[in-house]
């Protein structure tokens, strides 16, 4: 009970104070970042809210609001509603207090969602006062480095242990205190002193006092200048963004958001400037990265999963290049999405759009050549236009690029020639792999022959990690589950139905004839006794009772006709029926049908051919999806579902796939699992789950023939010859 104990308590006290100082200094540094971030983040949120149409409030309130008077009063966005506040909203004729309360509550919900998801982008080429303050605040913590993080963590743990021990050892700090303390307190004090001595010696041996002191100095040093901070940011942007996300409480899965690109490519993309002068929409972090990837790599495939906004990313690239002085751009797409592309470019950018389609397309082409802007055309129409001169077209965008995967098709030859003449190319497809890796290599060859050659004839089979690394210079893919964490849930249910006697009879007839397509739709051949149709009506009725909209997908027009007739006769469904959307419906008409379906109040049903409506149309008004039969290509189903489960969806989405036991549906589901696993391995994941030549090479024709033959054998029906899918 002498000097040694008092010295130990003193050393412990100093170490405790140093640990608390580091925690306080770190807290100040974090506070400085948050203070600098808040106004920038608030401004980004406001920009985002100012792009959300006021009609979205109906989605949040499940269609209960009537917003015509609000829009007529000049409040056209959610941001405008929030800015107006309750007093101004009450002044709008026909808007009562209850509507005002519901409207503001819905707007605040959307605002909260935007607050959670909006990304802050720091433009190194256009520094502003606010962003400079944020970069300088971040620079302090980035410059302190990982050692600072280690010091803060060690300080927290040490402080937690030392604090109680020092309180317990307080009597040992003075001779009189120790004499006045009772026997039990003296014993506890001495035991605490021993623990403190052990902690201090351990810390000193590990060099912790010096680390804590240096960390405090680093955290208090500040940036030497704003220029130095911006230069460091440009060199180490990934560290800044990672730290920013961590402090904001929303650390992203950076690797997934960047498509698991190799670091050298990802870093080059991160430092690519993205000009938003001509853009009227804010980008999410992964979308900005996608646009930068296209700019940095010049000729690429953007293979993002359906629903992630590939069109927005393409528009961001177009807007950037326009700001740099490029004047002519070309978008090539299926006729079904021509209207959608025109709408999106007009709404989300300041770029001029010219539709190069229809009988006057050559006059329109001449006008586009003279005035510039974005020409939007179809694959077939492109063949009739003269090839551009070198450097004339700033960017060629090819939507649904898997349409040109066959190098011998005329449309593919035309796209390849245009791509060769353009300095930049952006191919977009959510399903570049489909069945064969070789088809993907054909797309890559149009953009970069060296990368295509490095894949080899069967190069994809060496494993998806190597495959993704090889194609990284030209290929970027992200998945919804990785980057759209704000999406509501997606629930998939396989509805297995026992065929009725009438269904069985129709099915046996189709098998006997060897007609694969008839086998697939036999469950609807006797509508009055169809087990699948009965279940479909139940699903639609349940959705209607809950005020939900439903999309019904089938490959077959006659199946959709059966469904339409059944729903029309079913008064219990009480839902307006729209469609069917088929390949024969014009693009403009398709878009009007989807708009009408979205605009109707209450329950509604949209009928659509899966291969026609699965491309380019946004159906997020629907929260229930019914797929009448399994599809030959699993990616077709993925595309169709993604039309409803995408950005803008505010409700959970339920997907019901109607399947019949014991026949073609069951065999298709089993066989197609291999296709799905292959696609996941190469296009979605960074490691191979299973990849064999058989999984790659199974074609639609082979699958159909195999199923027909197996079913004929199972049922003892060998007459007829198997047909192939048409």
TrEMBL record:
InterPro entries: Helicase_ATP-bd, Helicase_C-like, P-loop_NTPase, SNF2-like_sf, SNF2/RAD54-like_C, SNF2_N
The keyword Cell wall biogenesis/degradation belongs to this UniProt entry's keyword annotation: no
Annotated Helicase ATP-binding domain residues: 291-450
Entry keyword Cell cycle: no
Protein name, as recorded: DEAD/DEAH box helicase
SUPFAM superfamilies noted in UniProt: P-loop containing nucleoside triphosphate hydrolases (SSF52540)
GO molecular function: helicase activity
Pfam family, one: SNF2-rel_dom
Organism of provenance: Streptomyces tendae
Domain Helicase C-terminal as annotated: residue spans: 535-704
SMART domains given in the database record: DEXDc, HELICc
Keywords of the record: ATP-binding, Helicase, Hydrolase, Nucleotide-binding
């Amino acid at each position: 009970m002498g000097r040694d104990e008092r010295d130990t308590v003193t050393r412990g006290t100093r170490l405790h104070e140093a640990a608390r100082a580091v925690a306080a200094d770190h807290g100040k540094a974090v506070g400085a970042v948050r203070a600098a971030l808040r106004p920038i983040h608030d401004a980004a949120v406001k920009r985002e809210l100012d792009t959300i149409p006021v009609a979205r409030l109906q989605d949040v309130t499940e269609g209960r609001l009537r917003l015509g008077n609000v829009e007529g009063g000049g409040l056209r966005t959610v941001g405008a509603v929030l800015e107006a506040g309750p007093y101004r909203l009450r002044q709008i004729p026909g808007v009562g207090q209850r509507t005002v309360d519901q409207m503001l509550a819905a707007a605040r919900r959307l605002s909260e969602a935007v607050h959670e998801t909006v990304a802050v982008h720091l433009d190194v080429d256009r520094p502003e006062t606010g962003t400079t303050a944020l970069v300088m605040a971040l620079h302090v913590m980035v410059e302190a480095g990982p050692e600072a993080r280690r010091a803060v963590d060690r300080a927290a743990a040490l402080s937690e242990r030392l604090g109680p021990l020092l309180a317990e050892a307080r009597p040992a700090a003075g001779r009189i205190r120790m004499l006045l303390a009772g026997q039990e307190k003296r014993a506890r004090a001495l035991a605490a002193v021993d623990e403190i001595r052990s902690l201090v010696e351990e810390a000193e041996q590990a060099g912790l006092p010096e680390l804590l002191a240096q960390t405090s100095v680093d955290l208090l040093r500040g940036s030497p200048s704003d220029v130095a901070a911006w230069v460091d940011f440009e060199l180490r942007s990934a560290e800044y963004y990672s730290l920013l996300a961590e402090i904001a409480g929303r650390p992203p899965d950076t690797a997934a958001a960047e498509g698991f690109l190799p670091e050298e490519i990802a870093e080059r993309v991160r430092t690519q400037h993205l000009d938003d002068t001509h853009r009227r929409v804010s980008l999410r972090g992964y979308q900005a990265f996608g646009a930068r990837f296209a700019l940095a790599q010049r000729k690429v495939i953007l293979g993002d999963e359906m629903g992630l906004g590939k069109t927005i990313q393409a528009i961001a690239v177009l807007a950037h290049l326009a700001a740099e002085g490029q004047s002519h751009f070309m978008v090539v797409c299926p006729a079904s999405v021509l209207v959608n592309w025109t709408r999106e470019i007009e709404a989300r950018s300041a770029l001029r759009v010219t539709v190069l389609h229809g009988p006057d397309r050559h006059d329109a082409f001449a006008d586009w050549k003279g005035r510039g802007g974005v020409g939007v055309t179809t694959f077939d129409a492109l063949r009739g236009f003269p090839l551009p001169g070198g450097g004339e077209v700033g960017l060629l965008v090819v939507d649904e690029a898997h349409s040109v995967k066959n190098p011998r098709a005329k449309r593919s030859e035309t796209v390849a020639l245009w791509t060769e003449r353009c300095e930049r190319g952006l191919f977009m497809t959510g399903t570049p792999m489909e069945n064969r890796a070789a088809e993907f290599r054909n797309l890559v060859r149009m953009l970069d022959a060296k990368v295509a050659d490095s894949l080899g004839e069967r190069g994809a089979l060496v494993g998806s990690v190597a495959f993704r690394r090889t194609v990284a210079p030209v290929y970027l893919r992200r998945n919804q589950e990785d980057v759209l964490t704000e999406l509501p849930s997606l629930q998939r249910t396989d509805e297995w139905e026992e065929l009725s006697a009438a269904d069985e009879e129709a099915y046996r007839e189709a098998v006997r004839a060897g007609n694969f397509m008839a086998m697939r739709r036999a469950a609807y051949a006797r509508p009055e006794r169809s087990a699948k149709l009965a279940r479909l009506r139940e699903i639609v009725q349940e959705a209607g009772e809950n005020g939900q909209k439903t999309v019904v997908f089938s490959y077959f027009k006659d199946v959709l006709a059966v469904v339409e007739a059944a729903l029309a006769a079913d008064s219990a469904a009480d839902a307006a029926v729209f469609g069917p959307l088929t390949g024969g419906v014009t693009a403009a008409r398709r878009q009007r049908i989807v708009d009408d379906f979205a605009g109707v109040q209450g329950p509604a049903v949209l009928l659509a051919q899966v291969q026609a409506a699965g491309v380019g149309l946004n159906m997020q008004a629907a929260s229930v999806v019914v797929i009448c039969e399994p599809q030959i290509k699993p990616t077709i189903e993925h595309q169709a579902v993604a039309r409803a489960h995408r950005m803008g969806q505010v409700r959970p989405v339920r997907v019901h796939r109607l399947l019949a036991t014991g026949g073609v549906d069951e065999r298709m589901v089993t066989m197609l699992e291999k296709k799905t696993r292959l696609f996941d391995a190469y296009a979605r994941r960074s490691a191979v789950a299973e990849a064999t030549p058989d999984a790659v090479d199974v074609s639609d024709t082979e699958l159909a023939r195999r199923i027909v033959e197996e079913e004929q054998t199972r049922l003892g029906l060998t007459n007829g010859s198997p047909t192939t899918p048409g």
